[in-house]
Amino acid sequence: MGSREDILTKIKKAKPAENELPTDFSFISTAENLLETFVAAAQSNGSQVTLIEDEKEIINYITENIASDERIIFNIKGFEDENEELEDQYINDPHKLESVDVAVIEGSIGVAENAAVWITENQMKYRVLPFITQHLFVMLKADSIVPLLHDAYKITKVEDGFSLFISGPSKTADIEQSLVIGAHGARSHHLFILK
Amino acid sequence: MRNHASLAEQFNLDENRVDWHNKTLWFVREKRDKQSHQVPDWEKLREIASKIKLNVLSNLDTYLMEFEKNALANGIQIHWAKDAEEHNEIVLSILKDHQVKYMVKSKSMLTEECHLNEYLEKNGIEVTDTDLGERIVQLAKEPPSHVVLPCIHKKKEEIGEIFHKHLNAPEGLSDPQQLTEIARQDLRKKFLQSQAALTGINFAVAETGEFVVCTNEGNADMGTHLANVHIACMGLEKIIPKREHLGIFLRLLARSGTGQSITTYSSHFRKPRAGQDMHIIIVDNGRSEHLGKEKFRNSLKCIRCGACFNTCPVYRRSGGHSYHTAVAGPIGSILNPIRNREDYKDLPFASTLCGSCTNVCPVKIDLHNQLYELRQEIIASGSGESIKGFSMKMMARSLSNIKKYEKFKRTVKWGYRYTPFLLKNKINPWYKHREMPEMPKESFKEWYQKNISDGK
């Protein structure tokens, strides 16, 4: 504990007089229509967007567009029987998710200004799933879109062990600033917005 | 001597590369402008971010303790390191406890500051950097040249060669898409085999004991959610008071750094996964001393977005390696000499003091003022460059006395007319990369006396 006490004592001596914490976090949103703004932001982040009326449309989309031998994990309530047999061993060993081609998960809050979607540990079930899968499908209810990031943080809950905002497919611009989609995480990001 | 000027001179030997480097970074700076102009209350965001960070500096010890308490309650283990050495030892001891041989690492400028990779490799641990840019410089055995764009100094053909040499890529490859795919496949193997993953921390939240890691590639998450041990390292200034403050900082961070509205992944780690060991190392390494320096403490607000690099006319034309340190650019030119005056006293002079860095800083650090102040301190302590000291003294002598000045002016004018080579030569540092001005026939004073004092 030597260093801890040392550091804290040094800080105590060195720190400046009180600077007050600001309290006004009201910011202007330019979004006239939340859904439209969200969709435009998502597309500019490199995501595909499909507006749906019913969750079943995701299953139809998969049947039509994804080869039947692809490995799909469906984490949406009421659709568990669409899954291959999922065993608890995946929780113990996330490496077993290496061969997942498509993961379908639900997001809880969408942010119109940047198309970031808040996803909790419960929703992804396995922490590594949204990253290790080749393609990520995210379902989001249109009425859960808020204007700004601040609005999202007002309603996020903190009890989860891991949660995150995802705003598109994995990307990099490390080579001469050329944008490449598909770095280490999901190669594609498909948003299904439930009206 | 290895200093900014001499290293920049090496970089400047290849003029085409300098132009290319300059333009590439200016492109990022322009993306930042576009993004920031789309946020109507951008200035308010900056102001609030700055105030939150000032409040953090005033309460740093209490916030750190609050964070520690909450993180411990969440099942995260907390370590404190007074310096780089202790930090490295802690990492090694955790790895040894778990008999780890391979570790994947996501980008962390703090571990660069501590030279962790070299230390671990000496102790028999294989470390793989997983951010694409960091992986490239790691294979090239170079340090990163930018905090956000680690291999911005490398051309795609050079990266192709590195991948050919180290990753069995076909010869002559230079397409970024293909190169990225090769790195993806190679690193996926590393992610799957690593027993431990190390990440940096962008923001640690005192209120909840959680920490946030931002990436576009997803490399931090690929590492930590597969490995049984997660080590997260943070400089002690990375703390923020409340979760709601993340809304401010996440809106500013990516917009300022790369011109994106937000990074692809903003991961909030609060508890270890079932069966996982999670550690946080809180590192001082000179920061608490920095906090006590009133004129410079403002620079501890830095969130490492890299905006000041991208806009700096000196950085863009001298390259990150000329700063011979982990954090280069304008902010590095403050943080490094404060930590180690002797080794980095050259850096505050690597600036035009134009103020562009201050203008783009999302947390309103008065970078150019601090650079100016640091110069004063370095000169006053007698450790400035002797040639500059000499010419400044000569200048002061001639400018402080009108007669001496007139005499000096006439001598220079006469000398310049008949022996221009005395100034236009390699010995005169001012002549480097500059044309000397044409000498006017008469000085302003002569013109004034002739024309105005006559009453014309």
Throw out a few tags for this protein.
heterodimer; A: 195 residues; alpha/beta; Rossmann fold; 5-stranded parallel beta sheet; 4-stranded mixed beta sheet; 27% helix; B: 456 residues; Fumarate Reductase Iron-sulfur Protein, Chain B, domain 2; 3 domains; 6-stranded parallel beta sheet; 22 helices; 10 strands; 51% helix; 11% strand
**What is the oligomeric state here?**
heterodimer
Element order of chain A: H for helix, E for strand: HHEHEHEEEHHEEHEEEE
> What is the C-level CATH assignment of the largest domain in chain B?
Alpha Beta
Structural class of chain B: alpha/beta
Q: Most extensive interface, residues per chain?
A: A-B, 75 and 93 residues
Sheet having the most strands of chain A: 5 strands, parallel
Spell out the CATH superfamily of the largest domain in chain B: NagB/RpiA/CoA transferase-like
Strand order of the largest sheet of chain B: 1-10-7-4-2-3
Shape descriptor of chain A reads globular
* Helicity level of chain A: 25-40%
Distance between the termini of chain B: 57 Å
Organism (chain A): Chryseobacterium lactis
Protein name (chain A): Lactate utilization protein B/C
Keywords (chain B): 4Fe-4S, Electron transport, Iron, Iron-sulfur, Metal-binding, Repeat, Transport
Protein name (chain B): 4Fe-4S ferredoxin
Short description:
The complex is a heterodimer of chains A (about 200) and B (about 450). With about 200 residues, chain A is an alpha/beta fold. Chain A has one domain (about 35-195): Rossmann fold (3-Layer(aba) Sandwich), CATH 3.40.50.10420.
